[in-house]
Design goal:
Blueprint: H1 7-34, H2 40-46, E1 52-56, E2 58-67, E3 73-82, E4 88-97, E5 100-110, E6 120-128, E7 136-142, E8 145-151, E9 169-172, E10 179-182
Amino acid sequence: MKGRIDGKYIKSIRHVKTVRLTAVLFTFFIVALSGCVENVEDEQNNTTEIEYTYGMANVESIDILIMESFPVQINVIAEGYLPDGCTKIDEIKTEREGETFNINITTKRPKDAICTQAIESFRETIPLEVQGLRAGNYTVNVNGVTGSFELTVDNILKETPDSMPPGQQVVTEAGNGTNINIE
């Protein structure tokens, strides 16, 4: 009775197909979900602190721009170069001592980095805090390159008295421009 298939055999075939289908689906979901898991080993390697070498930027020239406004605003344009492609501007620090503004532009470079050896130029605009200064001559020193500017008048905002005391209202008539004070 080769051609005869009994009920147990059919159930067994169905069971094998179900197990295979379940195994295939399980494998598919495991593979799909494995892309959602963060690689902890890579994350641990990336959290190590990068060590830097710090230095001073090579400044070649400065321009001092005086904006025609009141109070006067002054910007210093510093131009120079960085020694390689990995060196970046780290910090620009401005301090005033008397009539001299000292500006230090520092750089940082990853310690073990392999970089292009081509110099890279930079141009930084640095605003000076000059509001409240008296008229006079001032010096600007940016990493050893100096320039100067003159304030011809005190750069101090004077408080103007209120033209209208608090609590008073002024109404202007539309037709003739006459002001009416309401107290």
